[in-house]
Amino acid sequence: xxxxxxxxxxxxxxxxxxxxxxxxxxxxxxxxxxxxxxxxxxxxxxxxxxxxxxxxxxxxxxxxxxxxxxxxxxxxxxxxxxxxxxxxxxxxxxxxxxxxxxxxxxxxxxxxxxxxxxxxxxxxxxxxxxxxxxxxxxxxxxxxxxxxxxxxxxxxxxxxxxxxxxxxxxxxxxxxxxxxxxxxxxxxxxxxxxxxxxxxxxxxxxxxxxxxxxxxxxxxxxxxxxxxxxxxxxxxxxxxxxxxxxxxxxxxxxxxxxxxxxxxxxxxxxxxxxxxxxxxxxxxxxxxxxxxxxxxxxxxxxxxxxxxxxxxxxxxxxxxxxxxxxxxxxxxxxxxxxxxxxxxxxxxxxxxxxxxxxxxxxxxxxxxxxxxxxxxxxxxxxxxxxxxxxxxxxxxxxxxxxxxxxxxx
Length: 409
Ligand SMILES: CC(C)(COP(=O)(O)OP(=O)(O)OC[C@H]1O[C@@H](n2cnc3c(N)ncnc32)[C@H](O)[C@@H]1OP(=O)(O)O)[C@@H](O)C(=O)NCCC(=O)NCCS
Hints:
This protein has three domains: 3-108, Aminopeptidase; 132-295, Gcn5-related N-acetyltransferase (GNAT) (Aminopeptidase, 3-Layer(aba) Sandwich), CATH 3.40.630.30; 305-397, 2-Layer Sandwich (Nonspecific Lipid-transfer Protein, Chain A), CATH 3.30.1050. It is 25% helix and 32% strand. It is built from eleven helices and 19 strands. Belongs to the acetyltransferase Eis family.
């Protein structure tokens, strides 16, 4: 088996996509393939060939993703697949190594991905950086606390999603810089959010939406589908499947959730990805009825320690020497002094004794501000040589709100 690895050309798209689908065992409808193709950047989409046969795929999106302090360029890793006939021969490893060295050469200091299986990416230096929650809320038990905000100036407008796209775009533009993990959406990305053919509906009917607004304009939106049903006694058992809900302020946010939870003939709301600090947790009088499930959202890889650590902001002053272990990107494997406060950061190679020793995946896990490091110390993943150094770094790297991307790429 002689393998070669290179970016694919546009003419190879179809074969490349077929390998990806074979690897995932999926069959994507044509219109979704077309949206995927328009999102793909061919010069950043790699193929592994066994002779003439395409056997492996991986691609990178050029994202502008919010990190603590604001958006930076981030490589969004996607479409990682190996033909079943060629698995466990090192093809994934060759793709990951090439992709990370391309990112390094390009000066893109951070990569992020959604993992099909959580066990895959730690070996390549990715750390679990963001969590998400799945909520399944019975609407009969969804009263708010008496502290829920209300603004009499706010009203709801039922809209057709295709016609309200520019409103959604405007609201999303305003919120995406507020939360680490959210990334700017291209027109093709929006096409993916709003595509609404029968095969997109999962048996739950067309996309529906409401906009919260006042005389000054829109302040939030909720996008969802409703799977209507009735039980043997003719009682409504409908399920509302929430796709997105963004509010610019607490009152708009609460009103949108109230609407979603109060839709007639809906017995429960299924929200498949919400941030782990979703304010809804504090709006519900009985949050046990969230029936929350905790899952991983983004995995993050620090590609260049110094560039990545200076690109984000910090919550508190820190001055630590970190010994980074990194066998995949050897340029990171050394001691670095990180000096930062709330106004900026410096990170430079140094030869001083290490305060902390950690695998690069720990920096990825903490990078978006949502992973306290104490648990990693307790798990033995981080070693501390100067007492207090870990708490200092953990406090400085923590950030509000919690990271979450919420839209799989
Ligand atoms: C996951 C996948 C890409 C792995 O490709 P591969 O070429 O077989 O992987 P490699 O041979 O390079 O394996 C490298 C290492 O990862 C490990 N590994 C591979 N797949 C793994 C998995 N699903 N879970 C845990 N470990 C895995 C291998 O055991 C190997 O470990 P080692 O270095 O300790 O020997 C491939 O099996 C696949 O396409 N799966 C279906 C699609 C998918 O899940 N893609 C990931 C999308 S996020």
